[in-house]
Design goal:
By secondary structure, the protein is an alpha/beta fold. The chain has ten helices and 21 strands. It is globular. This is LCP family protein required for cell wall assembly.
């Protein structure tokens, strides 16, 4: 018994010694959003730092979040929500004091991820809190090398790759079909913009959400969380690769892991904050209002964003679609089986990208976006021979889309947005990026 206690004691301090912690003075923020008892909000930073072991991934000065997520965990309600904040978002940034090597900054308009360059993690934390109104309890930062280590510690992550991927910039080359991605491949998949989809950051976020859902499947459906020895080993691997605030102790991490045992994968939801093109710069994004504020307010109050009060499962994913997606004589078609091209004939800039982003988060395979040669009077999903059910799966998600056969098409259906486009039934009626519905970890397509 004494030997076991000493072994556990040694393991604890071995893991604790792995953690790189940073002091964040949240008292300096001034007035902060209220904290909801029992809920936990963690700012997760995928860092793009290119020094040390990360130098192989290109040159870039300073450090910015390559990805920025608010992880909202509600153990009492047995649900978790991951909110992606696209790095191209233009927001009102607060003033930050100089901090170490960071020069500080005056309050200004800028990209949401630039706060870290001016004032480090403390400035990024302050910015996220003030912009969203969500009380942040902790932060976790993982760089490229660290992310690879986490994936490799799981033995890789199984994914379905619908089409071959060749992206030299992301150093990613994958064949179509079921693949177990190792750390290097997973990093390339998460960073890839040009080998798949339309090359936008919002489309990339959809793939990131799908991968993170698959990774959570590996963690939560395996024996990582249920076996104390495996949990200790996993935490040991993870803590070697990340930086946290000094209040995110090993005990807190263990409590979070234990709490996640009770959360069904259907209730782990991934959403992207509603956004649209910045009128001042087509290469930047702004919040879609009031939907973005409604999402932030719900998270700040620990409210369910799916509209599903049943905690037994079934949040996120395809919740709330009006038609049921099952046309074509009752044939059931899963979103992952539907390949779709989105064409914007409605006229709003960037609308096809926004709609494609929403479809991606719902699990559909978006192969491209663009503009149609001919604009129909009504928003229409065109389909080739034998693809009616696939078209209905898309149309049933839309407020007002019809379907029509086009014998010239193959296996990919075309969603053509006309002047009457009103969005999807499970969003707040906007242009495809304006709702708070997302996809759940249970929807991650790991098998082809």
């Amino acid at each position: 018994m004494i030997g076991s206690s000493l072994t556990a004691y040694a393991a604890y301090y071995d893991i604790y010694g792995n953690i790189n912690q940073e002091d964040v003075d949240t008292d300096a923020f001034g007035d902060r959003p209220s904290r909801v008892e029992g809920a936990l909000n963690i700012m997760v930073i995928g860092s793009d730092v290119r020094t040390g072991e990360n130098a192989n991934y290109g040159e870039a000065e300073g450090e910015r979040p390559d990805s920025l997520i608010i992880a909202h965990i509600s153990p009492e309600n047995r649900r978790a929500t991951m909110i992606n904040l696209p790095r191209d978002l233009m927001v009102d940034l607060p003033a930050c004091e100089a901090n170490g090597d960071h020069p500080g900054m005056q309050a200004q308009r800028g990209m949401i991820n630039s706060a870290m360059s001016f004032g480090g993690v403390q400035c990024q934390w302050k910015a996220v809190e003030q912009i969203t109104g969500i009380h942040i309890d902790h932060f976790v930062s993982v760089d490229f090398t660290g992310f690879k280590g986490i994936v490799d510690s799981l033995g890789g992550v199984k994914m379905c790759i619908p089409e071959p991927i060749d992206d030299d910039k992301a150093k990613l080359h994958l064949e179509a079909g079921e693949q177990v991605l190792n750390g290097e491949e997973a990093l390339g998949y998460m960073r890839s913009r040009y080998g798949q989809g339309d090359g936008t950051d919002t489309a990339r976020i959809g793939r990131q959400q799908e991968f993170l859902g698959a990774m959570l499947n590996e963690v939560m459906q395996g024996d990582v969380l249920t076996s104390p020895a495996n949990l200790t080993g996993f935490l040991g691997s993870v803590t070697e690769t990340m930086t946290t605030d000094d209040e995110l102790t090993l005990e807190v991490m263990t409590d979070i892991a234990v709490a996640m045992r009770e959360v069904d994968l259907n209730n782990v939801n991934f959403v992207t904050v509603p956004n649209g093109q910045d009128p001042a710069d087509p290469n930047r994004l702004v919040f879609s209002e009031p939907q973005a504020s409604e999402l932030f307010d719900a998270i700040a109050k620990d409210e369910d964003i799916t509209g599903d009060d049943d905690q037994g499962g079934g949040g996120g994913g395809g919740g709330g679609n009006g038609g049921g997606g099952g046309g074509g004589g009752g044939q059931k078609v899963e979103p992952g089986d539907v390949s779709v091209e989105v064409l914007n004939g409605q006229g709003t800039p960037n609308l096809a990208d926004q709609v494609g982003q929403w479809l991606t988060t719902e699990g559909f395979q978006v192969v491209g976006t663009g503009n149609p040669e001919v604009i129909p009077e009504q928003s229409t999903v065109y389909y080739g021979p034998g693809q009616e059910a696939h078209a209905e799966a898309i149309a049933s998600e839309a407020v007002n889309a019809t379907t029509e056969e086009n014998p010239a098409l193959g296996d990919t259906v075309q969603l053509v947005l006309a002047a009457d486009w009103e969005g999807f039934t499970s969003t707040s009626g906007g242009g495809g990026g304006g709702g708070v519905e997302g996809t759940s970890a249970a929807d991650a397509k790991q098998e082809c």
